[in-house]
Amino acid sequence: MIVSAPSRAVLENFARIGFWNGTQGPEDYPLPSVMRSCMEYVGNDCSIKGMAENKSGWQWEVCGMMHGFSGTGFRFISSAVKHGGVDEFYLGRNLLDIYEYAFEAAGYSYEPLMKDEYAAALDYTGAHSNNEAEFRRKIIENIYEKKRPVIAIGVIGPPEPCVITGYDENGDVLIGWNFFQNEEKNDPRVSFEPSGCFRKRSWFADTSGIILIGEKRDMPTKAEQYRLALRRALDMLCYQGTMDCPAGIASYTEWAKALLDDARYGKADKDLHNTLDMGAGDIAERRCYGGAFLITAMGVLPEVQRELTGAQRSWQMLHDLQYRFWHTIDTMRKTSPDPMVPQLEGRRELASIVQLTQRKDLEGIEYIRKALIKLGYKEKDLPVLPTVPPILPDTRDIAAEVPCKTSFNEFIPKMGTFIDGVPQFDWWNRNICSFVNALETALAPTDYPYSYTDLMGYSGLAFRTRWFHNPEKKETSWGSGRWHPVSPHGEQCDVIAALTNGTGWQMQIRNLPKENKELEQERLTTNIVASVCAGLPVIVNYNTDLATVYGYFVWKRDLAMRDVQRSDQAEVMVPYDDAMLQSPYIFLIKHDNPISQKMAFLEGIRIAVSNGRRSAEDGFYFGHAAMKAWRSDLEGYDSYTKDERDSLFMTNWWCMLNLADARQTAIKFFESHKDLLDAKQMAAAERALDFYRQEAELVSTFNKENKDFICWWGGKKSAADWGTDVREREVDLLTKAIALEEHALLELEEIFI
Questions:
Q1: What pLDDT shows up at residue 408?
Q2: Which end of the chain is more exposed for a tag (fewer CB within 10 A), N or C?
Q3: What does the DSSP 8-state code read for residue 320?
Q4: Residue-wise pLDDT tens digits, 609-661
């Protein structure tokens, strides 16, 4: 003992370390957190801008840096397998090397002192001793004289690092922060300071070693440090453990198999919630901080920024998928007959999330490998990428890599992912077809955008008329009503197939079941997360119209969308299980080479002709037949009930708005592409265009003259105000439109002769 030292000395205002308690951010791995708190206390900013100003706040970047250099951010063993300490399993006799890497990153020297048995077990040849007095003397010297904390291994709990911030009773009692201190609060040797720090006497028996913080020292260049850290990271990421204890990529396979094991869930237990989902929290935090390390590395190694960005994005998605894992478990609890007996359907969905997580981790590993090759490592000297067979059919193909111009908002502080460059709708003035409006918006941030005009033309929607006509009130897929306001909508399979052909964009339509939709909604929300992380917005049906989802909050379960009906609002957030979110969900899958612009133009014209002659389907009429049915329904208005009149009123004006927009767009489509035609085709197109101009003028003028009936334009009149004179003028308009459309179709047919 130092004679001049007081019996008690404590470093005040030392930041807490420990498992997440709902404040600041999660720091659930001892070494990175211990190093962060120690460097903050000694005033070392670790070359992280803003660290000093954020003292006692969440030092996310510093933790990320320490996770990266120590390798904590790159390890993983699922809780589905039995194992000992993760660090010991991965590092074995090299365990103490992680302290060297951590202090090297911080730019400080350090002095380890290990117990004999611990040193021998790790083949450590540095300073070791079983002399308690020597340990006590060094701790007192550093805390009282140097005013520096001491890192101890053990003291409370397993041999993991903790921070000694003080001593009492001449060193008989150690004071500090330990991740496991609350787990041993019943130990008579353990008590607590008012600050929350532990107090432990008879501490030496449970202490494996101490590490003293030295002075600043010269280090290799930052570039070399990060280069070596990435090389060590690849070794850890590619390590798959043993047959008895799979690790890394192989650990996901074991996790998924455990979820699909019916025998494991044949009776009520808490295994799913208390064991298997722990893996989700483990991998989420590790790769989140691993990604933070990569962000810092980008500034040091700009030549591999592209590769490191790819890895960081893969791991950001991996992190976010774990929230989907937890949310799906919550839904399983609520919908299962017995919450303690997880049903196979739900477990299959969880296994699917695990499999996608595995795929994203592999992507991250591949990017790290590419970065190292670019940094000068020989490919033959690097570990090969792990290969694993899928456990389930891979149904989540929506996250295909597409070259996008998007950038993502920072993970901190919003805890969410958002695609930049997704414009607001301009629905009030133009672009009435909400599906095509939403698709144009969704494609805007990608490398393959398409205009509203081209999408309307290539799909044939610019020329189509569709009207739901069910006078006998037969049961259809759209109910048994006489009319349906979705008549002009465009989100049908044939339309999407035409758009794929014309633009090269492959899309996938997914629908919610009418009953017991909760689990499917979880599945589709997971798909949205995967798609947004890939830089691809998702089109959803919200409140009868189509909207574009461009982001999400991982913990609030909110989706960020552009909403047609709230196009004046810059940011619209809705819960993922909002009752107004309905089918369809339309995902962008990937972009292949489209047909030529001329072929796409001609195919749009061909579809226009086909739709003009199309037979009725499931209550919907097309072309001339649609306009004639529409006209007939208007003529029978006096015979309808009040509810039927209200339904016809809304359907009528919605279809009139869409008809005017469609034909005006058809004119733009023709005018922008007609030069692709030969002379004979051009002449026929000009004649057809003249008929469409006349029709567009008729419908647009009628709508403007009767704008008081159109609620979207601020109209306040209802079906009660819808007089015979207005309906008669519309009947006359439809009669003229039928004739004009017939002439236009005949001219379009000439293009193909």
A1: 42
A2: C
A3: H
A4: 999 999 999 999 999 999 999 999 999 999 999 999 999 999 999 999 999 99
Q: What percent of the chain has pLDDT over 70?
A: 92
Bridge partner residues of 241 (DSSP): 246
In angstroms, the Cα distances linking 536 to 406, 527, 550, 594 are 9, 11, 8, 18
314: helix, strand or coil: helix
- Residue recorded with tokens 């420990």: 18
pLDDT tens figures, 222-256: 999 999 999 999 999 999 988 888 899 999 999 99
Question: Minimal CA–CA distance to 232: which of 303, 290, 160, 301?
Answer: 290
Determine contact, residues 31/161, Cβ cutoff 8 Å.
yes
pLDDT band, very low/low/confident/very high, at 42 (cuts 50, 70, 90)? confident
Q: Output the six-digit token pair for 18.
A: 């420990």
The model's confidence at residue 218, banded by pLDDT at 50, 70 and 90, is confident
- Whether the CB-CB separation of 662 and 464 falls below 8 Å is answered with yes
Determine the pLDDT at residue 277.
Answer: 80
CA gap 590, 534 in Å, rounded: 10
Alpha helices in 107-220 (DSSP H): 116-121, 132-140
The SS3 call for residue 714 is coil
Could you please report the per-residue DSSP string of 189-256? TEEE-TTS-EEEES-GGGEEEEEEEEEE-----HHHHHHHHHHHHHHHHH--B-SSSB-THHHHHHHH
How does residue 55 score in pLDDT terms, banded at 50, 70 and 90?
low
User: Is the alpha carbon torsion for 686, 687, 690, 691 positive or negative?
Assistant: negative
CA distances, 142 to each of 2, 138, 249 (Å): 11, 6, 42
Q: What is the pLDDT of residue 338?
A: 75
Rounded to an integer, what distance in angstroms lies between the CA atom of residue 419 and that of residue 436?
19
Give the pairing of strands 466-468 and 416-418.
unpaired
Helix (H, G, I), strand (E, B) or coil at 415: coil
Is the peptide bond preceding residue 423 cis, with omega within 30 degrees of 0? no
Tell me the longest C-alpha to C-alpha distance in the chain: 109
For helices 305-335 and 278-300, the axis angle rounded to 10 degrees is 160
Cα 745 from chain centre: 46
Burial of 583 (0-12, 13-18, 19+ CB in 10 A): middle
Residues in the chain: 753
Which residue(s) pair with 542 in the sheet? 545, 581
Q: Which residues pair with 176 in a beta bridge?
A: 164, 198
135 Cβ contact list (under 8 Å, min separation 6): 113, 129, 204, 207, 210
